[in-house]
Design brief:
CATH topology of one domain: Rossmann fold
Number of helices: 3
Radius of gyration: 16 Å
Low-confidence stretches: 111-122
Number of strands: 3
Structural class: alpha/beta
Largest sheet: 3 strands, parallel
Mean pLDDT: 77
CATH superfamily of one domain: Vaccinia Virus protein VP39
Strand content: 5-15%
Shape: globular
């Protein structure tokens, strides 16, 4: 019997395993998915037209790639080194997209991400923050 995961990263490392022969093909980015359940929830239209996006818990990077293909500058962050390595391998040739291995709930340095402002001056709108919990 395999041992139980000891850390959150160990839990997420085997997420979405490949069950076929040869290298695992990268997923189709035609549809943006908020959850692991196909057709569940709205599409990327809910985001409007962002210039930059930060995908926390990006896993293999499918949704980050979907946005990058449409001209959004995206940084995907995941605590699993396995997932980040897979995302980098799949999407290495895509412009506007990079991946960071970090536990975003603890501490991460995002020098290139416009995510530092918590309150907008004079009440102006800075963007949209969407929180999706996978329970």
């Amino acid at each position: 019997m395999p041992r139980a995961p000891q850390t959150p990263a160990e839990y997420w490392d085997p997420y979405k395993p490949h069950r076929g022969d040869g290298p695992q093909p990268r997923p189709d980015t035609g549809r943006f998915a908020w959850t692991q359940y196909p057709g569940h929830g709205p599409g990327a239209e809910l985001l409007g037209s962002p210039r930059r996006a930060l995908d926390l818990g990006s896993a293999e990077g499918k949704e980050a790639a979907h946005l990058a293909e449409r001209g959004v500058r995206v940084t995907g962050v995941d605590l699993s080194a396995v997932q980040v390595a897979r995302a980098r391998a799949w999407w290495h040739d895509m412009a506007n997209l990079d991946f960071v291995h970090s536990d975003h709930l603890k501490r991460a340095a995002f020098a290139r991400v416009d995510a530092r402002v918590l309150a907008a001056p004079s009440g102006e709108r800075l963007g949209t923050l969407l929180v999706v919990a996978h329970c």
